[in-house]
Specification:
The chain is of the alpha+beta class. The protein is built from seven helices and nine strands; from the N terminus they run ααααββββααβββββα. The chain has two domains: 69 residues; 138 residues, Protein Transport Mog1p, Chain A.
Length: 222
């Protein structure tokens, strides 16, 4: 988990150098820094096992409160829906063969549920995953910088940039050398939607797949 946060912070730092810092980017960068603090606090809490566990968990709680504030939230979480309910968000798309959906639900270190399925068409394949974060900022924070409006990064092999999908903030990635791409969308500040593809000509198919998902019904999931 800490490695995930470290990667998120690294991306934030690189992006801040590559482009000017807007207010949204500064807030996202702050959120990434708070995420690292939360990760460090979680590590200390784990190391405190058998020692001063209460103090370790208190530090962790304070770090999470700071992260929620940086992300514009109040730190409150909700119980994630079942992964069976999430499976209803996976679309049936003409021309694509959909594999059997898989899912899981975990309660620690924070509750979340997820479902995913693989779609194939010839040599091309897509993996669609939906995660109910329950508003847990530890899951959302690593995306914060790349969701910032105007964010972009380009390399000799591809790019990543912020996008809007059906009114929801997201970011896409493209690797021209491997012809692979990824589209990520944060729905209602809670649900993390990821569409990854291989052997693609461009990212258009990723947007088409995401467009088949009714984001408007996510909030009504139970």
């Amino acid at each position: 988990m800490q490695k995930l946060f470290t990667v998120g912070v690294a991306v934030a730092l690189v992006a801040s150098v590559a482009c000017g810092k807007s207010e949204a980017e500064r807030q996202a960068e702050q959120a990434a820094a708070e995420a690292q603090k939360a990760a460090d606090a979680a590590t200390k809490a784990a190391e405190a096992a058998g020692q001063d566990v209460a103090k370790g968990m208190e530090e962790f709680g304070k770090a999470m409160a700071g992260l929620a504030g940086a992300m514009g939230g109040d730190g409150k979480t909700v119980e994630p829906v079942s992964f069976q309910a999430l499976q209803g968000t996976l679309p049936q798309v003409a021309g694509w063969e959909m594999g059997k959906p898989e899912g899981e639900r975990m309660t620690a270190p924070f509750p979340f549920s997820s479902t995913e399925a693989t779609y194939t068409k010839g040599d091309a394949s897509l993996e669609v995953k939906v995660v109910d974060s329950g508003f847990a900022q530890m899951l959302i924070a690593p995306w914060s910088m790349m969701l910032a409006s105007g964010y972009s990064r380009e390399t000799s092999d591809g790019y990543e940039k912020a996008v809007t999908v059906n009114g929801q903030p997201g970011f896409e990635k493209w690797d021209s050398s491997s012809k692979s791409g990824e589209l990520n969308v944060l729905v209602d500040k809670r649900f993390l939607v990821t569409v990854e593809g291989r052997d693609l000509s461009d990212t258009k198919v990723l947007h088409e797949m995401a467009g088949k998902m009714d984001f408007g019904k996510f909030a009504a999931l139970k």
